[in-house]
Amino acid sequence: MAVVHVFVTVLALVAMACLPGLIAVIVVVDDACDAVGRGVRRARRRWARHRSVRRTVAQVGELPLPEDLATAQPTHPPIERIAADLRRLRRQRTGLATRSAVWQSAIDNAYDDRLSLGCRVLGVDEYLGELTGLDREIERVRLEGLLQEAGLIHRDVDAGWRPDAR
Questions:
Q1: How many Å apart are CA 131 and CA 106, to the nearest integer?
Q2: Within 10 Å of residue 112's Cβ, how many Cβ atoms?
Q3: Exposed, middle or buried: residue 124 (CB in 10 Å: 0-12, 13-18, 19+)?
Q4: Which pLDDT band, with edges at 50, 70 and 90, does 63 fall under?
Q5: 119 in Cβ contact with 143 (< 8 Å)
Q6: How far is it, in rounded angstroms, from Cα 150 to Cα 146?
Q7: Are 124 and 146 in contact (CB under 8 A)?
Q8: Which of 64, 116, 122, 161 fits a disulfide with 150 by CB distance 3.0 to 4.6 angstroms?
Q9: CA angle 43, 44, 48 (to 5 degrees)
Q10: Is 79 in contact with 147 (CB distance < 8 Å)?
Q11: Confidence at residue 2, expressed as pLDDT on a 0 to 100 scale
């Protein structure tokens, strides 16, 4: 009887010693199952998007094109031209120390005009025409940021810089 009592006591001590490890294994397995489930859901969503895009592209290919599409003229210059103009005018705006006030005003107006055109092309709301002074300058900075987010690169980029260079 004493042997059974010692055996049960030792078994209880071993079980208590292994319990934290068992709980850790259960938690890790649960996290792994959650991660696999998220991956499967993400893959399903990507596949569904891919299928819907293929279906949409196929449907667009079947649409009849307007006859005047070949003769249609764009209502604005190419976005690359707008970005180049903004870069050029920005350089001229920063080098105005030796220029007259009339020249500076003309450059500012041309820059604002190109900012407004870029906003119209990319669908960004702008209020440059309604503002003056510091408010107008703040609006320029806001628009530059929004156009940058929309993909219009209007600042000069250092040609020697590469993202992979460390």
A1: 17
A2: 19
A3: middle
A4: low
A5: yes
A6: 6
A7: yes
A8: 122
A9: 120
A10: no
A11: 84
Q: Which residue type sits at 111?
A: Y
Residue closest to 153 by CA, chosen among 85, 106, 72, 105: 85
**Nearest by Cα to 81 from 108, 109, 112, 121:** 121
Which of 120, 121, 115 lies closest to 141, judged by CA?
Answer: 115
**pLDDT tens for each residue of 4-47:** 888 889 888 888 888 888 888 888 888 888 888 888 888 888 77
CB of 113 within 8 A of CB of 128?
A: no
Sequence-distant (≥ 6) Cβ neighbours of residue 136 within 8 angstroms: 112, 128
**CA dist., res. 18 & res. 114, Å (int):** 71
123 — alpha (psi -120 to 50), left (phi > 0) or beta? left
What is the residue type of 70?
A
Residue at 89: amino acid letter: L
Instruction: Specify the residue for token string 């080098």.
Output: 95
Per-residue tokens: 68: 């005047």
The number of residues in the chain equals: 166
